[in-house]
Amino acid sequence: AACSGGKSDKGGADRPITLGFSQVGAESEWRTANTRSIKAAAKAAGIRLKFSDAQQKQENQIKALRSFIAQRVDVIAFSPVVESGWETVLREAKAAGIPVIVTDRAVDVTDDSLYTTLIGSDFVEEGRRAARWLIDDMKDRKGPINIVELQGTVGSAPAIDRQKGFHEVIDADPRFKVIRSQSGDFTRAKGKEVMEAFLKAEGKNIDVLYAHNDDMAIGAIQAIEEAGLQPGKDITVVSIDGVKGAFQAMMAGKLNATVECNPLIGPQLMDIVKKVHAGQTVPKRIIVNESVFDRSQAAAAFPSRQY
Ligand code: GYE
Protein backbone atom coordinates (compact mmCIF):
# COMPACT_ATOMS: atom_id res chain seq x y z
CA ALA A 1 0.00 0.00 0.00
CA ALA A 2 1.17 3.52 -0.72
CA CYS A 3 1.34 4.48 2.89
CA SER A 4 4.32 6.20 4.35
CA GLY A 5 5.05 7.68 7.74
CA GLY A 6 6.77 10.67 6.19
CA LYS A 7 5.47 14.19 6.46
CA SER A 8 5.98 15.18 2.83
CA ASP A 9 3.09 13.12 1.43
CA LYS A 10 0.36 14.60 3.61
CA GLY A 11 -0.97 16.84 0.85
CA GLY A 12 -0.79 20.59 0.47
CA ALA A 13 -0.41 22.98 3.36
CA ASP A 14 -4.07 23.96 2.99
CA ARG A 15 -5.48 20.49 3.38
CA PRO A 16 -7.08 20.30 6.84
CA ILE A 17 -5.75 17.78 9.33
CA THR A 18 -8.06 14.85 10.01
CA LEU A 19 -8.13 13.71 13.62
CA GLY A 20 -9.78 10.49 14.74
CA PHE A 21 -10.82 10.71 18.39
CA SER A 22 -12.10 7.75 20.38
CA GLN A 23 -13.90 8.85 23.55
CA VAL A 24 -14.59 6.67 26.61
CA GLY A 25 -18.33 7.35 26.69
CA ALA A 26 -20.72 9.81 28.34
CA GLU A 27 -20.59 8.38 31.86
CA SER A 28 -20.18 11.61 33.83
CA GLU A 29 -20.49 15.39 33.80
CA TRP A 30 -16.70 15.48 33.48
CA ARG A 31 -16.84 13.39 30.33
CA THR A 32 -19.55 15.44 28.61
CA ALA A 33 -17.54 18.61 29.34
CA ASN A 34 -14.44 16.91 27.94
CA THR A 35 -16.30 15.95 24.74
CA ARG A 36 -17.67 19.47 24.32
CA SER A 37 -14.20 20.93 24.75
CA ILE A 38 -12.67 18.61 22.15
CA LYS A 39 -15.41 19.22 19.56
CA ALA A 40 -15.33 23.00 20.00
CA ALA A 41 -11.53 23.17 19.91
CA ALA A 42 -11.30 21.05 16.75
CA LYS A 43 -13.76 23.37 15.03
CA ALA A 44 -11.90 26.48 16.16
CA ALA A 45 -8.58 25.02 14.98
CA GLY A 46 -9.94 24.02 11.57
CA ILE A 47 -9.27 20.34 12.26
CA ARG A 48 -11.60 17.73 10.73
CA LEU A 49 -12.76 15.60 13.64
CA LYS A 50 -13.99 12.03 13.37
CA PHE A 51 -15.50 11.40 16.80
CA SER A 52 -16.43 8.00 18.16
CA ASP A 53 -18.09 7.15 21.51
CA ALA A 54 -17.09 3.75 22.98
CA GLN A 55 -19.82 3.55 25.63
CA GLN A 56 -17.21 2.54 28.22
CA LYS A 57 -16.23 -0.62 26.31
CA GLN A 58 -12.64 -1.32 25.29
CA GLU A 59 -13.71 -3.53 22.37
CA ASN A 60 -15.59 -0.57 20.87
CA GLN A 61 -12.51 1.61 21.24
CA ILE A 62 -10.28 -0.93 19.53
CA LYS A 63 -12.78 -1.10 16.66
CA ALA A 64 -12.82 2.69 16.40
CA LEU A 65 -9.01 2.87 16.33
CA ARG A 66 -8.87 0.21 13.59
CA SER A 67 -11.43 2.12 11.58
CA PHE A 68 -9.37 5.33 11.92
CA ILE A 69 -6.31 3.41 10.68
CA ALA A 70 -8.29 2.02 7.71
CA GLN A 71 -9.49 5.53 6.85
CA ARG A 72 -5.88 6.78 7.08
CA VAL A 73 -6.61 9.72 9.34
CA ASP A 74 -3.62 12.02 9.93
CA VAL A 75 -3.57 11.73 13.71
CA ILE A 76 -5.35 9.49 16.23
CA ALA A 77 -6.19 10.57 19.78
CA PHE A 78 -8.02 8.55 22.38
CA SER A 79 -8.90 8.40 26.04
CA PRO A 80 -8.44 4.73 26.96
CA VAL A 81 -11.22 3.29 29.10
CA VAL A 82 -8.76 0.92 30.85
CA GLU A 83 -4.95 0.89 31.07
CA SER A 84 -4.04 -2.50 29.62
CA GLY A 85 -4.63 -4.34 26.34
CA TRP A 86 -3.54 -1.71 23.81
CA GLU A 87 -0.24 -3.07 22.46
CA THR A 88 -1.62 -4.80 19.36
CA VAL A 89 -3.78 -1.99 18.01
CA LEU A 90 -1.15 0.64 18.82
CA ARG A 91 1.40 -1.39 16.87
CA GLU A 92 -1.01 -1.39 13.93
CA ALA A 93 -1.23 2.41 14.08
CA LYS A 94 2.54 2.70 14.27
CA ALA A 95 2.97 0.37 11.28
CA ALA A 96 0.56 2.60 9.32
CA GLY A 97 2.62 5.67 10.24
CA ILE A 98 -0.21 7.34 12.15
CA PRO A 99 0.84 9.14 15.34
CA VAL A 100 -1.27 8.44 18.44
CA ILE A 101 -1.90 10.94 21.23
CA VAL A 102 -3.23 9.58 24.53
CA THR A 103 -5.54 11.95 26.41
CA ASP A 104 -6.86 11.99 29.97
CA ARG A 105 -6.27 8.33 30.98
CA ALA A 106 -2.93 6.56 30.68
CA VAL A 107 -2.13 3.33 28.84
CA ASP A 108 0.08 0.59 30.27
CA VAL A 109 2.45 -0.47 27.46
CA THR A 110 6.00 -1.81 27.66
CA ASP A 111 7.06 0.06 24.49
CA ASP A 112 6.34 3.75 25.00
CA SER A 113 7.20 4.57 21.39
CA LEU A 114 3.65 3.30 20.70
CA TYR A 115 2.25 6.73 21.55
CA THR A 116 3.52 10.26 21.11
CA THR A 117 2.40 11.94 24.32
CA LEU A 118 -0.08 11.76 27.19
CA ILE A 119 -2.07 14.91 28.00
CA GLY A 120 -3.93 14.56 31.27
CA SER A 121 -4.17 15.06 35.00
CA ASP A 122 -2.03 13.59 37.76
CA PHE A 123 -4.59 11.21 39.29
CA VAL A 124 -2.27 9.98 42.04
CA GLU A 125 -1.89 13.56 43.23
CA GLU A 126 -5.69 14.02 43.13
CA GLY A 127 -6.06 11.01 45.46
CA ARG A 128 -3.45 12.46 47.81
CA ARG A 129 -5.26 15.80 47.81
CA ALA A 130 -8.55 14.17 48.80
CA ALA A 131 -6.80 12.40 51.71
CA ARG A 132 -4.95 15.53 52.82
CA TRP A 133 -8.19 17.49 52.81
CA LEU A 134 -9.84 14.80 54.93
CA ILE A 135 -7.03 14.63 57.49
CA ASP A 136 -7.11 18.40 57.83
CA ASP A 137 -10.91 18.50 58.10
CA MET A 138 -10.85 15.85 60.85
CA LYS A 139 -7.79 17.00 62.72
CA ASP A 140 -9.65 17.27 66.04
CA ARG A 141 -11.58 14.04 65.71
CA LYS A 142 -10.68 10.84 67.54
CA GLY A 143 -10.43 7.51 65.73
CA PRO A 144 -11.60 5.13 64.52
CA ILE A 145 -12.86 6.98 61.46
CA ASN A 146 -14.46 4.59 58.99
CA ILE A 147 -14.27 5.32 55.28
CA VAL A 148 -16.17 3.74 52.41
CA GLU A 149 -14.69 4.13 48.94
CA LEU A 150 -16.50 4.28 45.60
CA GLN A 151 -13.96 3.34 42.96
CA GLY A 152 -14.08 4.35 39.32
CA THR A 153 -14.10 1.90 36.40
CA VAL A 154 -12.10 -1.22 37.24
CA GLY A 155 -8.70 -1.16 35.51
CA SER A 156 -8.93 2.51 34.49
CA ALA A 157 -6.01 4.83 35.23
CA PRO A 158 -8.04 7.26 37.38
CA ALA A 159 -9.47 4.41 39.53
CA ILE A 160 -6.06 2.81 40.05
CA ASP A 161 -4.24 6.08 40.72
CA ARG A 162 -6.89 7.79 42.87
CA GLN A 163 -6.95 4.76 45.13
CA LYS A 164 -3.16 4.65 45.29
CA GLY A 165 -2.68 8.34 46.09
CA PHE A 166 -5.43 8.35 48.69
CA HIS A 167 -3.99 5.32 50.51
CA GLU A 168 -0.48 6.69 50.37
CA VAL A 169 -1.58 9.61 52.57
CA ILE A 170 -4.45 8.19 54.65
CA ASP A 171 -2.61 5.01 55.69
CA ALA A 172 -0.08 7.12 57.57
CA ASP A 173 -2.83 8.24 59.99
CA PRO A 174 -3.92 5.28 62.17
CA ARG A 175 -7.34 6.79 62.97
CA PHE A 176 -8.57 6.12 59.44
CA LYS A 177 -9.71 2.82 58.05
CA VAL A 178 -11.24 2.01 54.65
CA ILE A 179 -13.92 -0.52 55.62
CA ARG A 180 -15.50 -1.04 52.17
CA SER A 181 -14.32 -0.35 48.63
CA GLN A 182 -16.16 -1.15 45.44
CA SER A 183 -16.51 0.14 41.88
CA GLY A 184 -19.40 2.41 40.90
CA ASP A 185 -18.09 2.69 37.31
CA PHE A 186 -17.97 6.51 37.51
CA THR A 187 -21.78 6.85 37.11
CA ARG A 188 -24.47 8.34 39.35
CA ALA A 189 -26.74 5.31 39.08
CA LYS A 190 -24.00 2.86 40.09
CA GLY A 191 -22.73 5.21 42.80
CA LYS A 192 -26.17 5.24 44.34
CA GLU A 193 -26.61 1.49 44.06
CA VAL A 194 -23.26 0.64 45.66
CA MET A 195 -23.76 3.21 48.43
CA GLU A 196 -27.11 1.59 49.24
CA ALA A 197 -25.30 -1.72 49.67
CA PHE A 198 -22.62 -0.06 51.86
CA LEU A 199 -25.31 1.49 54.07
CA LYS A 200 -27.17 -1.78 54.37
CA ALA A 201 -24.03 -3.63 55.41
CA GLU A 202 -22.50 -0.99 57.68
CA GLY A 203 -25.45 1.05 58.97
CA LYS A 204 -24.26 3.98 61.08
CA ASN A 205 -20.64 2.79 61.03
CA ILE A 206 -19.80 4.95 58.04
CA ASP A 207 -18.11 8.28 58.84
CA VAL A 208 -16.71 9.20 55.44
CA LEU A 209 -17.41 8.56 51.77
CA TYR A 210 -14.50 8.95 49.36
CA ALA A 211 -15.74 8.78 45.74
CA HIS A 212 -13.38 8.70 42.75
CA ASN A 213 -15.66 11.15 40.94
CA ASP A 214 -18.40 13.68 41.70
CA ASP A 215 -21.13 11.82 39.83
CA MET A 216 -20.81 8.73 42.04
CA ALA A 217 -20.79 11.01 45.11
CA ILE A 218 -23.97 12.73 43.90
CA GLY A 219 -25.66 9.36 43.40
CA ALA A 220 -24.46 8.23 46.83
CA ILE A 221 -25.73 11.42 48.46
CA GLN A 222 -29.21 10.42 47.33
CA ALA A 223 -28.77 6.97 48.87
CA ILE A 224 -27.60 8.53 52.15
CA GLU A 225 -30.65 10.79 52.26
CA GLU A 226 -32.99 7.91 51.48
CA ALA A 227 -31.43 6.02 54.40
CA GLY A 228 -32.50 8.90 56.67
CA LEU A 229 -29.00 10.32 57.17
CA GLN A 230 -27.60 13.74 56.34
CA PRO A 231 -24.85 13.75 53.71
CA GLY A 232 -22.19 16.34 54.51
CA LYS A 233 -22.96 16.01 58.23
CA ASP A 234 -23.55 12.43 59.37
CA ILE A 235 -21.29 11.25 56.60
CA THR A 236 -18.50 13.49 55.31
CA VAL A 237 -18.33 13.29 51.52
CA VAL A 238 -15.24 14.08 49.43
CA SER A 239 -14.91 13.42 45.71
CA ILE A 240 -12.97 14.39 42.60
CA ASP A 241 -13.63 16.40 39.38
CA GLY A 242 -15.10 19.76 40.45
CA VAL A 243 -18.11 19.69 38.10
CA LYS A 244 -20.98 22.14 38.53
CA GLY A 245 -23.14 19.45 40.15
CA ALA A 246 -20.51 19.13 42.90
CA PHE A 247 -20.51 22.88 43.52
CA GLN A 248 -24.30 22.82 43.79
CA ALA A 249 -24.11 19.92 46.25
CA MET A 250 -21.50 21.81 48.29
CA MET A 251 -23.68 24.93 48.34
CA ALA A 252 -26.58 22.75 49.58
CA GLY A 253 -24.28 21.45 52.36
CA LYS A 254 -24.37 17.86 51.11
CA LEU A 255 -20.86 17.49 49.68
CA ASN A 256 -17.90 18.59 51.78
CA ALA A 257 -15.13 18.97 49.21
CA THR A 258 -14.13 18.25 45.64
CA VAL A 259 -10.66 17.91 44.15
CA GLU A 260 -10.49 19.58 40.75
CA CYS A 261 -9.77 17.58 37.61
CA ASN A 262 -9.91 19.78 34.55
CA PRO A 263 -11.61 18.21 31.48
CA LEU A 264 -11.18 21.25 29.20
CA ILE A 265 -8.15 19.91 27.35
CA GLY A 266 -9.50 20.47 23.81
CA PRO A 267 -7.43 23.56 22.91
CA GLN A 268 -4.24 22.02 24.29
CA LEU A 269 -4.95 18.79 22.41
CA MET A 270 -5.44 20.59 19.05
CA ASP A 271 -2.21 22.43 19.58
CA ILE A 272 -0.37 19.15 20.09
CA VAL A 273 -2.15 17.56 17.09
CA LYS A 274 -0.82 20.35 14.86
CA LYS A 275 2.70 20.02 16.23
CA VAL A 276 2.74 16.24 15.94
CA HIS A 277 1.39 16.43 12.38
CA ALA A 278 4.11 18.94 11.50
CA GLY A 279 6.71 16.51 12.79
CA GLN A 280 7.73 18.58 15.81
CA THR A 281 8.75 16.88 19.02
CA VAL A 282 6.44 17.30 22.01
CA PRO A 283 6.93 16.40 25.68
CA LYS A 284 6.04 12.79 26.54
CA ARG A 285 3.82 13.89 29.44
CA ILE A 286 1.71 17.06 29.66
CA ILE A 287 -0.01 17.68 33.01
CA VAL A 288 -3.09 19.86 33.57
CA ASN A 289 -3.12 22.39 36.47
CA GLU A 290 -5.82 22.02 39.14
CA SER A 291 -6.77 22.61 42.83
CA VAL A 292 -9.14 21.70 45.73
CA PHE A 293 -12.43 23.45 46.69
CA ASP A 294 -14.46 23.07 49.89
CA ARG A 295 -17.89 24.36 50.94
CA SER A 296 -16.58 27.70 52.20
CA GLN A 297 -15.30 28.50 48.69
CA ALA A 298 -18.14 27.01 46.64
CA ALA A 299 -20.49 29.99 46.27
CA ALA A 300 -17.69 32.39 45.32
CA ALA A 301 -16.20 30.01 42.76
CA PHE A 302 -19.47 28.77 41.23
CA PRO A 303 -20.17 31.63 38.76
CA SER A 304 -16.82 31.22 37.05
CA ARG A 305 -16.89 27.42 36.77
CA GLN A 306 -16.68 26.41 33.12
CA TYR A 307 -17.86 22.80 33.48
O1 GYE B 1 -12.84 11.80 36.78
C1 GYE B 1 -14.66 10.77 35.68
C2 GYE B 1 -14.80 10.28 34.30
O2 GYE B 1 -10.86 9.90 33.26
C3 GYE B 1 -10.45 11.75 34.64
O3 GYE B 1 -13.51 9.80 33.98
C4 GYE B 1 -11.46 10.95 33.91
C5 GYE B 1 -12.57 10.43 34.79
C6 GYE B 1 -13.36 11.47 35.55
O4 GYE B 1 -15.80 9.41 34.12
O5 GYE B 1 -15.72 11.61 36.06
From TrEMBL:
- Keyword Phosphoprotein present in the record's keywords: the answer is no
Q: Which domain of life is it from?
A: Bacteria
Q: Which Pfam families match?
A: Peripla_BP_4
In alphabetical order, the GO MF annotations are:
carbohydrate binding
Instruction: Please give the PROSITE patterns that the UniProt record associates with this protein.
Output: PROKAR_LIPOPROTEIN (PS51257)
Task: Provide one Gene Ontology cellular component.
Answer: cell envelope
Where mainly found? other
Answer whether the UniProt record assigns the keyword Signal to this protein: yes
The record's listing under Gene3D superfamilies reads:
3.40.50.2300
InterPro entries, A to Z: Peripla_BP_I (IPR028082), SBP_2_dom (IPR025997)
Q: Which GO terms fall under biological process for this protein?
A: transmembrane transport
Domain named Periplasmic binding protein is located at 20-270
| Similarity comment | Belongs to the bacterial solute-binding protein 2 family.
> What is the name listed in the Swiss-Prot or TrEMBL entry for this protein?
ABC transporter substrate-binding protein
The species this protein belongs to is Solimonas marina
